[in-house]
Amino acid sequence: MPTGRSKGRGGVDLARYQGEQDRFVHLSLHDLLEARDLYHPYLMQHPNVVATAIGRYRIRVDDSWPGGPGPARHGHTTRTLANSEVRPYSWPAILVFVERWATPAQFSGQSASGYQSTDRVPPSLFLPDGREVPVCVIEAPKVAAKPPSPTPRPQPLNNLGGSSPIFVDVQGQTHFATVGCLVSDGHTAYALTNRHVAGRAGEVLSSELDGRVAPVGRTASAQLSRVLFTDLYPGWPGRDTYVNLDIGMIEVDDVDRWTARIGDFGQVGQMADLSTANIGLGLIGCHVVGQGAGGGSMAAEVAGLFYRYKAQGGFEYVADLFLGPRPIPPARSTGTPPPSLVTRPGDSGTLWLLEPKDGPIADDQRLPLALQWGEQRFTEPGVDPQPYVLATLLSSVCRLLEVDVVRDWNLDQPDTWGSVGHYSIGAHGADGISARVPKLRTLMHDNLAVISYDDATLGTSSFAGMTTAAEVPLADVPDYCWKLGKQGFKRGAEGPNHFADMDQPGPDGKTLLDLCKQIGNVDPLVWDTFYGTVKDLLSGDPISQQHRGLIPFRVWQIYDAMVGFAGAGDAKRFVCAAGVLAHYVGDACQPLHVSYLHDGDPLRPQQVQHTSHGQPVVKTEAYGAGVHSAYEDDMVGLPTSRAAILAALAKTPKVAKAELLADGKAAAVATVKLMRTTIGRLPPMDIVEAYVAHTSADGPMPDYLWKQFGAATIKAMVDGTHLLAVVWESAWVAGNGEANVAPTTFTVADAMKVCQQKTFVPSTTIAKIGAILK
């Protein structure tokens, strides 16, 4: 069957990434593998033959194109990788690499070369049924020497990810390689690189953080060295052949220091999921890009499949992909010359991405394809040695290690309202501002792009909540910048500002909700005293300051700051404070942020068996573990959910004059009321029980949860958006903003400069926040 156009099992249409249909549709990839397997021992006995691969016939660049101007030209001189290329009409072929080219005359038996007629590589091989398989001979003398290792490229502060360098000390010397990407087995996050760099299990690996080298993880026990070709590609010919994989995994110490972005390419698309079902000759000539820690950005094309590069102990060794430089466009083309392929030591582990051949390319149109593990260097007279990359298909790696590629920057952190939730509330806070404060309405509407995104962006399925690693709209600054620290200004005390376990009972059975029925108990000292009497539900130890939530007091603190900014006529800081406030008010109307059941019931721990790297593993988990991300990320992120949420938030009620808050404490009391209403409307235990009760017969989990909790979730988010508008307008009125502030439009970059200052609404703990509240 023809295999020139295919579709990945993950639903990605690969047609845009591939070339024309195979010219000889009767020859499949399986046919070429069968022919090579039948003849490989025979071919390798020929003088000068050093390797073989599956590909398409390479045409000399000086040969004429069909239908081109002038007489037809077809050369017979030495064919090399540098002077030949794959063209759209190139036909399927077995590539045979030789150390030295010989002319037909040299095989006459009478030549001084000493070659016999039987020494010549045949132009074709034949399958048992008589079909002809073309052979393309290429002179490719290998160069043993490699260039010296370069200095790793500078890295951004506190932001490791794909293309970052990874260091290991071996026998007194420091070596470095490249991180390919992040993967997860559903429990633990890992960084992929090469096995020959990661070393043995438990090896400490380092990288560059904040301008200095520091440990970032240890080598995991699960690694891949080689696997039989017929095991990896069942049903395909490949006797006595190993596929070299060379994959190591690093169990990362702190996911807060990692991003799923791939170097300068940003967030990438779905993995190119390839197997015997859909790998085809259409991959030949496909464009790929990568970014190594040593060589930087690289561009290449797929020059061959299943490159057989050595024989040892009676077995042949192959690499999945053989990547080479892109050809120079023909003279008649108006295209710009492609970038050269320059890979250096230290690039091992680089993730190569499949990209479309034409048109503008968005980040999510680059598909993770393969991990680099080696190179072959070839030379010819008058040409500098040219590296060719050997790489392993990422889909094979993920299948064997039982992991998935992490594409989203969020990494499913359990204490983050999904990006849709935070940004939707932030985007519609201005809709609740009354006509009594026209300057405030103008200021907040004009700075929507600084606070959040518009509905058109929020409603798209590709929305991931981020623009660039350096610039974050204000509604998610508290998570991404202050808590996770991706821009290098992480705040150590930020975490407890995002939650409060309002329903966790103390020794006498009373909860914070019970205590706060008396307004006088909306006091940080009262809360801190209460926390001192409560034990951690998992460890039994006293609750640490990092686990003593304080959402209402964070709202109080920011209200006070906004009053001051309005009074001083500081429009920029008022907008910044209002924007980050959207995040905390959003947390207050999320039921799993205001409950001890935030990710299941810890009072009912269960022993759950998982499969990790092919082995059964028993882990202790809370009853219903996983519910947090299922509810706030997956359910809220449904296209139908987004549309319904955004439509409802656009109708957020306007602030009534009677709702204006007198001071910061009143803002905290109103926040507690919102939390109480949220828990009453969306009982956290109901969400946990529904999550556990779900079966395959109920359909997809997100749809199942939305049917039960969607309407109540919308009401909770409308309540949160309305309270946000109330706090904004109250602080503005208290600071006489209509008289003091001139509406001005800012940029996200302007906001970042404010938010990176530790003195701007500083993050603190419940024990210390009372000293800064007014």
Low-pLDDT runs: 1-23, 409-417
By CATH's scheme, which homologous superfamily of the domain at 420-514 and 547-600 and 626-772 applies?
P1 Nuclease
End-to-end distance, in Å? 76 Å
Q: Care to count the β-strands? A: 24
Strand content: 15-25%
Number of helices: 21
Helical content (DSSP H or I, runs of 4+) = 25-40%
Describe the protein's architecture and organization.
With 774 residues, the chain is an alpha+beta fold. Among the domains are: 19-139, no CATH class; 420-514 and 547-600 and 626-772, P1 Nuclease (Orthogonal Bundle), CATH 1.10.575. 28% of the residues lie in helices and 23% in strands. It contains 21 helices and 24 strands. Strands 16-17-18-21-20-19 form a six-stranded antiparallel barrel. Strands 2-3 form a two-stranded antiparallel ribbon. Helix 5 packs parallel to helix 18, helix 12 (551-567) packs antiparallel against helix 13 and helix 12 (551-567) packs parallel to helix 18 (701-734). It is elongated.
